[in-house]
Structure formats: C-alpha cells, structure tokens
C-alpha cells in the first residue's frame, strides 16, 4: 500500500538574452510513499510542473481535482488524467505526463503513466516501470479535498 502527500515545488524563473522569459512557478508535487513523483519522472530535466497549485483559475483547478477524485470524467479523450504539464500554459498540446486513475470501494490506483499531447498517441514506454501506486481511498480523498479548499 502506498501513501500520498503533497508538497510545494518551485520552478525557477529566468530571462534569456533574446528576451524570452521562463516564468517562475510555485506548484504542488505529489509525494508517493515519501518520494517526490516529480523527481521520479525527472521533471527538472523535462521542464514540466505539477498540475495543481500554480493557476489563478480556482474553478479550473477544482475541476481537475474532481477528475482526480472521480467526480468528473477525464477531459482528455484518452481517458487519461494529466499529472505534470507545461509550466507556461498547462496546455496538453505542449506535452504532459498522464496516467489512468481507477477507483474501487476501498482503493484508488494510479497506473499506466505515459507522455501525452493532443496530436499523437500517448507514449507509454518511457514510464512503464513507474507505478502502479495504490492508495487507501479515504486517505486519498482527504488529501485532495484539503487541496481543493486552499
């Protein structure tokens, strides 16, 4: 059985010589059984951030949390849910790490992690060794409900 907690991460901002900007972002990272899921995926190298905690649009973020809770159907046609997204816009077209979330009476399972965008089939090969992660449903819901209230 895995445990889930949340912690804040920061993507450092930067202004490049050509004038382009890399926006600083504070975001929520998932910690699974004491280990940052973002670090497991190598996020500092891929320049993706957690899907929660950085948007000013609370309604949209709460809708995404509801996808993680199974109250909303996944927005993506593949039935997968974004975990890590583009730090500038969050658009799936820029690429995202996604997964399937399954619910049973007592458990929530994150599985089949992959890289996805909205113009090609998801690539499930790079992350096939990660997961599945199984959480006690009550604990899982409590953690995500707290995130929704922030």
Topology:
Blueprint: E1 4-11, E2 14-15, E3 21-22, E4 25-32, E5 35-36, H1 37-40, H2 43-46, E6 49-50, H3 58-69, E7 81-85, E8 96-103, E9 107-116, E10 133-136, H4 137-149
Antiparallel strand pairs: 1-4, 2-3, 4-5, 6-7, 7-8, 8-9, 9-10
Helix pairs in contact: 3-4
What brief labels describe this structure?
150 residues, 22% helix
Concise account of the structure shown:
With 150 residues, the protein is an alpha+beta fold.
Question: What this model shows, in words?
Answer:
The chain has one domain. Helices cover 22% and strands 34% of the residues. It has helices at 37-40, 43-46, 58-69, 137-149; strands spanning 4-11, 14-15, 21-22, 25-32, 35-36, 49-50, 81-85, 96-103, 107-116, 133-136. Strand 2 and strand 3 (21-22) form a beta hairpin. It is globular.
Structural class computed from helices and strand pairing:
alpha+beta
Round the Cα radius of gyration to an integer and report it.
15 Å
Q: How many structural domains are formed by the residues?
A: 1
The main sheet comes to:
5 strands, antiparallel
Strand order of the largest sheet: 6-7-8-9-10
Mean pLDDT across every amino acid position: 91
Order of helices and strands: EEEEEHHEHEEEEH
Number of strands: 10
Distance between the termini: 27 Å
- Helix fraction, binned, reads 10-25%
Report the β-strand fraction as a percent range: 25-35%
Shape type? globular
* Number of discrete helical segments: 4
pLDDT under 50 segments (min length 5)?
Answer: none
